[in-house]
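In keeping with the milestone schedule agreed at the kick-off meeting, the structural modelling team has produced records for the first pair of proteins. Each record is given below as a sequence line and a structure-token line. The laboratory manager (R.T.) confirmed that both were archived under the project's standard naming scheme.
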Amino acid sequence: MKKGIGLLTAGLAVGAGLMYFFDPDRGHSRRTRVRERTSSAMRSAGDAISKRSRNIGNRLKGIAHDTRALLSREGEAPSDELLMQRVRSEIGHWVANAQAVEVQANQGHVVLNGIVEESEMRSLLDHVKNIRGVLDIESHLQLVH
């Protein structure tokens, strides 16, 4: 009895759907709208998957690069120029006016000169000291309130 009611209900639902989509007056526009929405959803899903894949690929490349660098140059210190570039890059992430900070490096010893916001100082120094190759930091930064 329950099986018969379930089949009857399913049959009614399929019939109603067919009538909805094959209606002589509006069926064509309904089918077109469903096709367009499905295509749009598929494109959006494809774009999201593509972005996520590129992101994961880039992260894996970065991890591989860092691992190779650690294994091949375990005790090797970076050049002063490379260290200054690393520090400038980090400054750009943590200081609003990165151009106001001058960086000097000498065998792992980093000297910072310039002007920074007081609220940026602690974060900047914490991040710079964690850069690979930085042995110590000498700060001559002037604070602005």
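The second protein of the pair:
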Amino acid sequence: MSRVSEPVFERLLLKLSGEALMGSREYGTDAGRVDAISTQVAALSDTGVEVAVVVGAGNIYRGLEGAAAGMDRATADYMGMLATLLNALTLQDALEKKGAHTRVLSAIEVMEVAEPYIRRRAIRHLEKGRVIIFAAGTGNPFFTTDTAAALRALEIHADAILMAKHGIEGVYDADPTKVPEARFLAEITHREAIERGLRVMDSTALSLCMDNDLPIHVFNMADEGNIDRIVRGERVGTIVSTNGSPVVRAEAGGQRRER
């Protein structure tokens, strides 16, 4: 596809896993990876695209693993929510060092370090060109940060979700780390992803996107040019949509399409 000079999206939500911040470490955050990610996000914001981010906490704590070890599931999930706040603050600090204006909005109240999540406030921050980072998931146990990403994307009227993967080019018909002959899928529908149990997002998140016709671009975050290529209209990774074909919500220089 030929390169275009202007972004074809106006507002995007980037979903980052906690593991994306680890680099080669077994736990915690790697300063080099955080710097690389913040550079890409700041550059995206500089193009004029309104950017929101949801970050997971798998590099610090996983509620499901805590529950599996015998902890009450709700308690374990709340601990995971707090861990996402640590990652959000880490990303905020890195972004501001790149010159980006940011706000962290938390679904649970932590007034000293983040604003409470209010939908209209989030949209206003985006309109002012600020990068917003959603922390603490949905604020409810039993829901993943994938579901939080789908929910927040719909609430702020994002044109698409950019689903960042670390070291994987997109969606495959099997786990490529375990099945060498796994086939890459350039396009797939939300329903197919759910029915085939493909590792895109959890089923709740995929159902939300399917019911509201919200496309997901699954791509390899390790390639630092991929975000820019997607935003400028190039085919990168896998597109997950309601009808299995590319969806562009906003034309370059045009008006936002109402949902």
